[in-house]
Amino acid sequence: MIQLPDAFCGGRSANCAPVAGEIKVTIDGIEISVPKGATIFQAAERAGYTPPHFCFHRDLSIPANCRMCLCEVKDQPKLQTSCSTAAADGMVVAFDTPRVKEAVQGVVEFVFKNHPLDCPVCDQVGECYLQKYYMEVGNYDPKPIEKVHKDKVKDLGPITLDAERCVLCSRCVRFGEEVAGTADFMIAHRSDHSEIMTFDDRPIDSAYALNYTDICPVGALTSNDFRFRKRVYFLRSAKSICPECSTGCNIYSDEVLFHAGLRFDRMSDTLSSQEVRRLYRAIQEILQEAITLAVFVPFAILYMGQPVKLDYLWAALCIMGAVYFVFRG
Ligand code: SF4
Ligand code: SF4
Ligand code: FES
């Protein structure tokens, strides 16, 4: 397992190691100092460039299996994965070269080979790493091929799995094993037929299940609560404090406009229990009750003052208003 220096992960990850001195690395012509033991990826981030990545996540182990973060290291004949290669003093690294771009473009093309054309209906649109990297390094003429089809729309309880959209980064597998301790996912089969699935196709019954939707860089794992509710770019986001317990963790809450609800999906610190992420339900109920009252009370007051002929009309309007606001969520 790669050990990241404390300076980068703040001691939160099992991958952290104490910092022991600084080294100098040159990234695309920029010389920077990084703690000893840092990876090239971390050094690049410090130099202001985040290499494309699917499998790397600062709180998880580093398998280097997606091959998206490739770089050229001076005097090394082959391209290296920057997330798993330790930086050394005096190392000269380049990301912005035709060789690296061609290699990463090849990786993206392999990922897209069997990827479905689901973007118009995919909940990940607007926060999808694959879309982002396709626009940055893809944009080639794809060759039509016969795709391998995998499981689509598999209901796993709080989340839905679409194995065709999966880029096999293994983040969910590692999150289950290393963080949640529930080992919910595995990668089965080989080659093009490799597929993410739960053991025995079991639904996920874990307190951290909804974290999978944040960990997944694409739309393979989506929250059933949020599915098809709203495009993420229509959400209004605000920094907030989690009200669930006395720890007071920082969170982002995403307001779903015109829906009297909130999406507690994007947490500032990766982990948060399902109860926290579903707090929006309680808030939604309170808001709906408040709106119902706001509509019902004026109608009721008007009703009291109307002549008998309008009785049925007012009564019907009151009931329709109440039913609409109760069931619209
Ligand atoms: S995962 Fe990303 S690229 Fe794939 S369908 Fe969804 S939005 Fe599109
Ligand atoms: S489901 Fe998502 S997190 Fe899991 S391996 Fe596939 S892309 Fe990665
Ligand atoms: S991010 Fe480096 S190989 Fe996946």
Describe this structure as you would to a colleague.
With 329 residues, this protein is an alpha+beta fold. The chain has three domains: 4-96, Ubiquitin-like (UB roll) (Roll); 108-277, Alpha-Beta Plaits (2-Layer Sandwich), CATH 3.30.70; 284-327. Helix content is 30%, strand content 18%. It is built from nine helices and 15 strands. The strands form five sheets. The protein has a five-stranded mixed beta sheet, with helices on both faces. Strand 1 (4-5), helix 1 (6-9) and strand 2 form a beta-alpha-beta unit. Helix 3 (98-113) packs across helix 4 and helix 8 (279-305) runs antiparallel to helix 9 (311-327). The protein is elongated. 29% of the residues are buried. Mean pLDDT is 82; it is low at 1-14 and 257-262. FE2/S2 (inorganic) cluster binds at residues 53-56, 64, 66-69, 81, 83.
